[in-house]
């Protein structure tokens, strides 16, 4: 009986310990999940190499893992990838997701591009089908290096084909003959230039001499300009000052003369109105006096001084 009771006690203790371990494991799991956040990413490209449990990195730092991968039923072109990241990961506005492949065949989800001071990516108070179709925030995507190359491969092939066709059309027999002629002309031109090498060298030497002479002439012109400026400053300026003084003196003299004319104008008017008529009468009287004196002189010449006193006697007449 005692042995059986001991086994029962040991079994009960083991069951209690197992239950406590299970509760502790569940609590640890809940604690770990509470410090993580979930996001959806919709990739419009192949997710080859990506699987459940693949690493999620932020700027190269492991910060979470892929939780689920599935085609998006509303649009099969997209693949919905559910990821979980640590709560301290700065999933802010501007963050984008890309798929990075590796040589081992495994791929990772790379997050980067957050802006400093931006708000975290979150669902609005009333999420809709475009922003949070499955109740968790959506991280936008951008094409990675390999994805971009693969997506642009058809365009690159088309452009390469077009370039090949154009090159084929360019390298026809006629164009090849034209190119050969151009090369021949280039060779002849090179030969002619090589033959004229000494003449070109002499021309260059003369050009250098001409440039040097032009430089010397410009320096001499500069010196001449400086000398001319000195002469103007030393000789012309004093002369201009003297000329200004002479002009000022002449202006003062003219003003004095104008004042004298103004003062003499009343006397001139009196002279012209009174003195000149009297002078005219005096001249007329002098003319009359001169005429009378001329007649007296004629009488004296003809009859002598007695003619001034009496009449002239007639000569005696004797008959024959």
Written overview of the protein:
The longest helix is centred in the C-terminal third of the chain and has 107 residues, at 197-303. Strand 2 and strand 3 form a beta hairpin. This protein is of the alpha+beta class. It has helices at residues 2-34, 145-170, 173-195, 197-303, and strands at residues 36-43, 55-58, 61-71, 79-86, 96-100, 108-112. Among the domains are: 34-146; 153-188. A 6-stranded mixed β-sheet has the order 1-4-3-2-6-5.
Gyration radius, in Å: 66 Å
Q: Residue-averaged pLDDT, rounded?
A: 76
Terminal CA distance = 250 Å
Query: How do the SSEs run, as a string of H and E?
Result: HEEEEEEHHH
How is the largest sheet built, in terms of strand order? 1-4-3-2-6-5
Shape: elongated
Unreliable spans are: 310-315
Percent in helix: 55-70%
Total count of helical runs of at least 4 residues: 4
Backbone structural class: alpha+beta
Please indicate the percent range of residues in DSSP E strands (runs of 2 or more). Answer: 5-15%
Largest sheet: 6 strands, mixed
Give the number of DSSP strands.
6
């Amino acid at each position: 009986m005692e042995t059986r009771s001991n086994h029962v006690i040991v079994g009960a203790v083991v069951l209690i310990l197992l239950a406590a371990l299970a509760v502790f494991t569940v609590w640890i799991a809940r604690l770990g999940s509470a410090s993580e956040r979930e996001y959806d990413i919709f990739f419009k490209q192949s997710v080859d190499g990506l699987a459940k449990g693949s690493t999620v990195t932020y700027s190269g730092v492991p910060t979470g893992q892929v939780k689920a991968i599935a085609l998006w039923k509303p649009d099969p072109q997209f693949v919905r990838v559910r990821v979980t990241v640590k709560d301290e990961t700065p999933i802010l506005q501007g963050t984008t997701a890309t798929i990075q492949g590796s040589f081992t065949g495994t791929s990772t989800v790379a997050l980067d591009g957050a802006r400093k001071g931006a708000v975290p990516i979150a669902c609005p108070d009333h999420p809709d089908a475009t922003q949070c179709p499955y109740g968790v925030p959506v991280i936008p995507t951008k094409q990675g290096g390999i994805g971009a190359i693969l997506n642009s491969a058809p365009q690159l092939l088309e452009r390469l084909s077009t370039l090949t066709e154009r090159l084929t059309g360019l390298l026809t027999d006629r164009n090849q003959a034209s190119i050969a002629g151009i090369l021949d002309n280039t060779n002849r031109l090179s030969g002619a230039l090589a033959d004229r090498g000494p003449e070109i060298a002499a021309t260059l030497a003369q050009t250098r001499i001409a440039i040097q002479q032009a430089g010397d002439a410009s320096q001499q012109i500069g010196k001449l300009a400086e000398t001319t400026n000195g002469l103007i400053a030393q000789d012309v300026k004093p002369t201009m000052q003297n000329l200004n003084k002479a002009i000022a003196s002449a202006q003062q003299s003219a003003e004095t003369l104008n004042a004298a004319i103004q003062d003499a104008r009343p006397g001139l008017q009196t002279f012209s109105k009174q003195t000149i008529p009297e002078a005219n009468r005096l001249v007329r009287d002098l003319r009359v006096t001169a005429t009378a004196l001329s007649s007296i002189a004629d009488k004296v010449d003809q009859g002598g001084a007695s003619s001034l006193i009496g009449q002239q006697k007639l000569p005696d007449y004797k008959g024959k």
